[in-house]
């Protein structure tokens, strides 16, 4: 299996927007090459995390090795490397692109190119990948391959004269795609004789075998008997397994330059074998690692607290376990007088945060309170020192601060031009600075803004989608820190400061946010046995207040023979619901209230 | 069973019969009912005739028991039965259990489903008490509720019942009203109460509208087309009901029930006392020995269940101590098999509350355990919502009753936690 000549290997990935049919096409390729029998085909084979399948998006990438008999009668090895499709995971995308020589650019023949696709195509071009345009879903009535082909030419400058029209759903055009991969994607450079350099483009944690590392051999070869060195983490391991994904893991003796495979070496945590790290041989190491390695930096932070204080040790254990498989997850203990013991956690973005939260609740059966997301602020103190603040509640008092700086991003929104107005209004509301607007085709534009990250990580994405009926897409990247007139907005529930609801906002928006926040909390916190004042304040100055009236009526009207069981069940259900709330002082606060700041526009 | 097992259980002395037929399903109703159309009647309906056969068979197959002191025929619209059909059912109960002297025989009746002749027939068959499903005196409201009757029907029916009671042919009767209806304000509700009082019913049941899943009202609410009173108005309406009826001489003897002295529903009091009862018919719940059994809610499933019971020994729900208990003596506060938490749950609905210490002792709870419950109740006790007087714990009227769910949730949580602690040691 591994005596395949380098000249007959093709490594490629698929670049596509969510819903444009990437997973369906991948499944079709596996089926048409006989890699997976049709009857074993689970829909969307490559997306094998339950959560991913539910959300229809790819979070963790995977790879598959296919054997394909080309028109010349030779057997070729085609390695498909899947890429995640979300902005939170652009670093992983760049690493998986580096493992390829070619890419299928899959575009929905009725929808056209989206911003996320565009960002990934540019990354692919930067990595010198051969790009094969594929116009998918041509079986649908709205398909207009000619127009979309022109659009791709106009936007990206790709020659689409030999674009392949296909329907991943029906299988139409799929053989052409396989042949095009052989014909047009260049074989990997033959560097078998050089010292081993293999790029880690993915890994996951297996409780029995330790971390499973997915890699592409760039030069040299690796065999089961080797001892390896990971050049960034400086860790060394003896290999337990080397193999390929066909698509199930199959052990082989060795893999050489150009090939894609996996290894297992009893590695304890994915943090020890990070995406982008270079594998080399301990006995004959490479001079320098492959370029481009960076450690994933969390951009979004929030507090995670167990609803029930007794679950704190369980939460710690769950986070420890999750981190084994998620190197980007950062956390440290946080204590709050209002919330008790919990953790301050850092994430790549909002989606990453939601995924971690869901996994904790689902896989570890924890009831959690998640506080509203925050970015990391740089605070310049009067004594000349600076500190980084990822928790608004810990922002030093104004008397000690010289200034606050917040992270800014370059934001690109790609949209049909009919939504220009509403999107510019949204960006304006979110303190965006307009840079430019470019017409890409006659009816599509890119809007370019610079905007505080804090405004993006609140519900910006949802707002953009709802204002454009889902047609707009976006992409952002960090461009540095800027000074702004920021203040700390505190919330008091029943006269007690509610740390987890503290936010940092621009002074000009503080009044509006404060008013919106107390109104929203009034809506989200159920009536209780006593009246509850809710206030928003800057320092000691209350800028908005509301109050929740005491509960006066909470009674089951009718209760005769047959009703008793039903009423009892209802009361038990209500009691459980109350348990899922967090007691702040005497007030029971439901989970969604802690995210109130994200819901001000609803 | 441990040494502290409660005494009893006593054999049931009450029976509930379910008549599922209705002319139409009202827009708020989620009961087990079978709508047969506006013209249907027991005299001509094959469905009703077939169902009665099943019901008679179920009664005949029940285990023996002492004579019944209360019978309640509910529905549905039991007044769709002819007096002869009702007579057959009562005869079946008499044959199986016997009827105690002075037994209370209650029948639910809907305005516009009966006339004076039919009423006389029911009374002749032995009915002593009628519960009239009036709901509202406002035609527009009745229309919105999906009711078949109108204000004039209600006034006529109430007049016949009042006359029968004055003549001494009917021991008591009750009128049902619904409060918290869409668009209802305090003035409109007060007018409803005034008209209800004017009809002179010795008993009134006032229920809050509850929007149940699967009803027309639920659909309307989802679409935002049900302008229900807000939380404060709903509380005002309830408090007003209590004041207004108290001023008219009605005692508030249970959360939703008001009566002149001596006119409380004996049958319903059985449910709140924790004692057992027989139940017969589609969708009916029985609990002869404390453990409740709900029968299937459709005709097909109920029929199949009856067949299955016929194969098995006796009728399910009648399992338990069986005939041996038939000789038991009923006495004082019945102490059947209902668990402690449920006995408190139903008992606190009553004006007289519960004898908590006695129930706890009967359930084998130690003083420390009872103290832990009282500790959980401390906030409610401190506010005077719940208090002990003369060995009875009761909810204050109106605040305590209005917030009873909060008190009951504490009770159920406490009971569940206690259960959880007990189990590993078993």
Structural class of chain B: alpha/beta
Placed side by side, the strands forming the largest sheet of chain B appear as 9-10-8-7-6-5-4-1-11
Helix content of chain A: 10-25%
Please count the beta strands of chain A (DSSP E, at least 2 residues each): 33
Descriptive account of the structure:
The complex is a heterodimer of chains A (602) and B (426). By secondary structure, chain A is α+β, with helices and mostly antiparallel strands. An 8-stranded antiparallel beta sheet of chain A has the order 11-10-16-7-8-15-12-13. In chain A, strands 2-3-1-4-5-6 form a 6-stranded mixed beta sheet, sandwiched between helices. In chain A, strands 21, 22, 23, 24, 25 and 26 form a 6-stranded antiparallel beta sheet that branches. The longest helix of chain A is centred in the last third of the chain and has 18 residues, at 507-524. Residues 44-49 and 51-61 of chain A have low confidence and may be disordered. Chain B has 2 domains: 14-273, TIM Barrel; 339-426, Arc Repressor Mutant, subunit A, CATH 1.10.10. Chain B has helices at 46-61, 83-96, 116-125, 139-145, 151-167, 186-198, 216-222, 231-247, 266-273, 299-311, 340-347, 356-362, 367-376, 378-382, 399-402, 404-425, and strands at 14-19, 21-22, 34-35, 68-75, 99-109, 129-135, 172-179, 203-208, 251-254, 257-259, 278-280, 285-286, 293-294, 386-389, 392-395. In chain B, strand 7 (172-179), helix 6 (186-198) and strand 8 (203-208) form a beta-alpha-beta unit. The longest helix of chain B has 22 residues, at 404-425. Chain B is globular, with a radius of gyration of 22 Å. Residues 1-7 and 315-336 of chain B have low confidence and may be disordered.
